[in-house]
Specification:
There is one protein chain. By secondary structure, the protein is α/β, with parallel strands linked by helices. It folds into two domains: 58 residues, no CATH class; 196 residues, Rossmann fold (3-Layer(aba) Sandwich), CATH 3.40.50.300. The chain has a five-stranded parallel β-sheet, sandwiched between helices. Strand 3, helix 9 and strand 4 form a beta-alpha-beta unit. Helix 1 runs antiparallel to helix 2, helix 2 packs antiparallel against helix 3 and helix 8 runs parallel beside helix 9.
């Protein structure tokens, strides 16, 4: 059988990985005198690798991650963040263990970067996920209700291995919206589905907290606590592991470094 015929049949069967690797794999097999089963095995490995790469690319697309951020892009030096912990989270073990995560920090501390990086790493490991900003999710839920299609988004999200909800507390939506968001989070929690949340809300109460707290931090905690609501705040503490990023605004630091 001619080479072109073999390649045509591989293409017809959508064996694109085998087709791409055919010439090199065959040349190596002839040079090293591999057994036929070794040749077939190498072609099958190439096909599996290509299908996995296509699947990851597809899952990254449907996850709607706003940026291509990875762990190695993050500057851990000088940041009050446990790098070993972040890299452990990026391995995806917490998804397999059906645990939830909240990244707490002010503007520019890197919480969204880390959430995206962890999500991308977990997708490469085989998980399916979806990213939403809180504002976008709220708008979609309200539009869904106006169209008389309530429940479709919630049903879709409960099937994802993980959900990233960015900037919880950035807006103060209606009581109905909070009830719907709470329902999504509670359903995912009860179904042992992982949720990754980023927020500015302080992990300690603004009033009566142990230790010192600056007036600005206390004000921020009180305002954002009001936006989230004590019920939601208490639920997050119950459901999630909370990691605080209480360091420098790295975006401001970057701008200063480049415009001195």
């Amino acid at each position: 059988m001619e080479r072109t015929e073999v390649l045509d049949m591989m293409g017809e069967l959508k064996l694109y990985g085998m087709k791409a690797a055919y010439d090199e794999t065959l040349a190596t097999a002839l040079k090293r005198k591999h057994e036929p089963q070794r040749l077939v095995g190498d072609l099958l490995h190439a096909e599996i690798a290509e299908k996995q790469a296509r699947s990851i690319k597809y899952q990254l697309t449907i996850a709607k991650l706003p940026l291509a951020k990875d762990i190695d892009d993050f500057t851990f030096k000088g940041a009050p963040i446990n790098e070993a912990l972040v890299r452990d989270l990026a391995s995806g073990g917490f998804i397999a263990q059906q645990r939830n995560l909240v990244l707490v920090g002010g503007t520019g501390t890197g919480k969204t970067h880390l959430a995206i990086a962890i999500a991308r790493s977990c997708i490469r490991a085989g998980s399916r996920g979806r990213f939403f900003t809180t504002v976008d999710l709220v708008n979609r839920l309200e539009a869904e209700t106006r169209a008389g299609r309530q429940g479709r988004i919630a049903d879709y999200l409960t099937r994802m291995d993980f959900l990233v909800l960015d900037e919880l507390g950035a807006v103060k939506p209606t009581e109905w919206v909070w009830d719907t968001v709470s329902l999504i989070l509670n359903t995912r929690y009860n179904d042992n589905r992982t949720t990754i949340i980023t927020t500015n809300f302080d992990d300690q109460p603004a009033a009566g907290a142990s230790g010192s707290m600056s007036p600005a931090r206390a004000s921020r905690a009180e305002t954002l606590g009001d936006r989230i609501g004590e019920r939601m705040r208490s639920r997050l503490h119950e459901m999630c592991r909370i990691i605080t990023l209480d360091g420098t605004d790295f975006r401001q630091k970057f701008r200063s470094a480049n415009f001195r």
